[in-house]
């Protein structure tokens, strides 16, 4: 609402001008956010009709195409799992403070067997962690030895549009996805969620309530048979982070053999997700959704 308010005002100004010349009967907003209180509010204030398609699904299909034809992603059956999870984190300022809150919980849990990257200064906003963290979190971050970088990396480079960290991922049981949006009533997943799917990894998803259910609605499977995914049902954003941190603590406290066995049990699920993404089934769902959305716009605007 705050970021795009000037754009919305300008659209309404131009729409008013157009309507003087027999412009469209209705105004539409097309978003990649479903079941969203923000979209509801925008539409209520501006008298727009909402239309949805999963843009980030299309983006991931484009950005991560061809990796299934490469030798970069190791065979799941051959992996030796030594780490509990991998978690790349880049932007920590602005509306990404859930990453700071979760990292503080992991510090409190003494998580030590994971691959984690985390900056000391937000690389986009230039704000130091001591000015982002809550007062009660600052001592823990001061003692954490930030920044944390993956081997061979500095300054937390942007990796959105390609896959990377193949070696670190291949030895990690799970991928901790810290999504862009993790608060409020809305479903808004990005390409981040598809990285572990393409890397043939289990994942824990830090996002809004119901995000795992939302992802399953596109034909993917999650991991409730292997660990507690009830965090997805928790509507309190802070409680959900605590529940996620508890799952990660459990994974981190396992022995190497327990993590290996758990990954082996996950292989049928990760292979289903990989094949669903790369073999056309996911694209078919997106195509049906997109064309259906366009057809509904045509119908609504012709009525």
Please tell me about this protein's structure.
- The protein has 303 residues and is α/β, with parallel strands linked by helices.
- The chain folds into two domains: 1-52, no CATH class; 58-282, Rossmann fold (3-Layer(aba) Sandwich), CATH 3.40.50.
- It contains twelve helices and six strands.
- The strands form two sheets. The chain has a four-stranded parallel β-sheet.
- β3, α4 and β4 (115-116) form a beta-alpha-beta unit.
- α4 packs across α10.
- It is globular and about 65 Å long.
- It starts with a helix and ends with a helix.
- The mean pLDDT is 94.
Brief summary:
With 303 residues, the chain is of the alpha/beta class.
What is this structure's SSE topology?
Layout: H1 5-19, E1 27-31, H2 37-46, E2 48-52, H3 55-63, E3 83-87, H4 97-108, E4 115-116, H5 129-132, H6 138-142, H7 166-170, E5 172-178, H8 194-198, E6 203-206, H9 211-216, H10 237-252, H11 256-278, H12 281-302
Parallel strand pairs: 1-2, 3-4, 3-5, 5-6
Helix pairs in contact: 4-10
Outline = globular
The CATH class of the largest domain is Alpha Beta
Distance between the termini: 30 Å
Which blocks of ≥5 consecutive residues have pLDDT under 50? Answer: none
- Give the % helix: 40-55%
Q: Give the helix tally.
A: 12
Query: How does the major sheet shape up?
Result: 4 strands, parallel
Number of domains: 2
- Report the radius of gyration as a whole number of Å: 21 Å
Q: Architecture of the largest domain, according to CATH? A: 3-Layer(aba) Sandwich
Total number of strands: 6
Mean pLDDT: 94
Order of helices and strands: HEHEHEHEHHHEHEHHHH
CATH topology of the largest domain: Rossmann fold
Portion of residues in beta strands equals 5-15%
Strand order of the largest sheet: 4-3-5-6
Derived from helix and strand composition plus strand pairing, the structural class reads alpha/beta
């Amino acid at each position: 609402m705050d970021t795009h308010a000037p754009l919305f005002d300008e659209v309404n100004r131009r729409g008013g001008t157009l309507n003087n010349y027999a412009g469209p009967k209705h105004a539409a907003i097309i978003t990649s956010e479903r079941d969203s209180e923000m979209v509801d509010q925008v539409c209520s204030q501006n008298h727009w009709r909402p239309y949805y398609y999963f843009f980030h699904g299309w983006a991931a299909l484009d950005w991560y195409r061809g990796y299934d034809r490469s030798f970069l992603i190791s065979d799941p059956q051959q992996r030796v799992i030594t780490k509990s999870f991998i978690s790349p984190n880049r932007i920590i300022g602005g509306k990404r403070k859930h990453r700071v809150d979760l990292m503080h919980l992991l510090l409190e849990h003494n998580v030590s067997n994971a691959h984690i990257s985390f900056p000391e200064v937000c690389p986009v906003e230039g704000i130091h962690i001591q000015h982002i963290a809550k007062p009660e979190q600052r001592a823990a971050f001061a003692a954490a030895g930030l920044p944390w970088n993956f081997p061979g990396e500095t300054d937390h480079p942007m990796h959105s549009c390609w896959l990377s960290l193949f070696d670190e991922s291949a030895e990690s049981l799970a991928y901790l996805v810290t999504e862009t949006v993790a608060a409020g009533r809305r479903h808004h997943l990005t390409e981040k969620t598809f990285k572990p799917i393409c890397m043939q990894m289990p994942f824990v998803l830090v996002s809004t309530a119901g995000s795992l259910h939302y992802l399953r609605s596109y034909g993917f499977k999650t991991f409730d048979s292997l660990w507690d995914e009830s965090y997805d049902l928790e509507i309190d954003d802070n409680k959900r982070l605590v529940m996620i941190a508890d799952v990660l603590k459990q994974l981190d406290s396992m022995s190497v053999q327990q993590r290996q066995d758990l990954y082996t049990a996950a292989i049928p699920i990760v292979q289903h997700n990989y094949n669903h993404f790369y073999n056309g089934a996911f694209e078919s769902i997106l195509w049906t959704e997109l064309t259906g959305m366009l057809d509904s716009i045509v119908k609504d605007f012709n009525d």
